[in-house]
Design goal:
This protein is of the alpha+beta class. It contains six helices and five strands; from the N terminus they run H-H-E-H-E-H-E-H-E-E-H. The chain has a domain at about 55-180: 2-Layer Sandwich (Ribosomal Protein S8, Chain: A, domain 1). The chain has helices at about 5-10, 40-45, 70-80, 95-110, 130-145, 170-185, and strands at about 65, 85-90, 115-120, 150-155, 165-170. The protein has a five-stranded mixed β-sheet with strand order 1-4-5-3-2, sandwiched between helices. Strand 2 (about 85-90), helix 4 and strand 3 form a beta-alpha-beta unit. The protein is elongated.
Length: about 190
């Protein structure tokens, strides 16, 4: 602030009296203004459903293989031969939150050209346990994605029956790169 601005300010404030320290003035605390709910545009495209569910018995392992996928790929997936590029933990989350997170996770993995994922859903002791309900929904949801090639139970050190490995389809860019690499070798 230069001298002219300061003198103008002091002139304007000349007749202002400071507030006395009195107890009859009560300042209202700032109200908690509700933050506007952000519309998650990604979730608008979420096609995963929470309709009627056939609960998968605990003794039945999670396993799915898209038609045309070689059995060797599923065997390697089951044996944990593919390194996990990302993981998602759904333990103790409500079904709707799990639905949203699974959709966002698979979508982001596709955008990042990831191929091998680990999803931890937890273990239940009874068929009706929350973890088994999430597990059953997860089996349905993963099979609804066209880019999910296969999924199966994880190895014990990755969570065993409380987790599953997921194999995604190779992205178009990765397929093209792979084709170029093998084309150079054949020359």
């Amino acid at each position: 602030m230069n001298f002219d601005e300061k003198s103008l300010f002091l002139d304007a404030m000349e007749d202002v009296q400071p507030l006395k320290q009195c107890h009859d003035v009560h300042w209202q605390p700032a109200r908690n203004l509700r933050t506007r709910q952000q519309i998650d545009l990604l979730q608008l495209d979420n096609f995963l459903t929470t309709d009627f569910l056939d609960i998968i018995p605990l003794g039945t392992p999670l396993e799915f293989k898209r038609e045309g996928l070689q059995t060797g790929v599923l065997d390697k997936l089951r044996l944990g031969k593919y390194s996990q590029q990302a993981s998602l933990n759904l333990v103790h989350l409500p079904v709707e939150k799990c639905r949203q997170q699974v959709f966002a996770f698979i979508h982001q993995a596709q955008c990042d050209s990831l191929r091998n994922l680990l999803i931890i859903h937890g273990k239940g002791r009874k068929d009706g346990a929350h973890a088994n309900i999430i597990r059953s929904y997860l089996a349905r949801w993963l099979s609804e994605f066209d880019d999910v090639q296969a999924f199966c139970c994880a190895l014990a050190h990755h969570g065993g029956s409380g987790a599953c490995y997921v194999a995604l389809r190779k992205s178009a860019a990765a397929s093209e790169e792979n084709g170029e690499r093998h084309a150079k070798r054949s020359r």
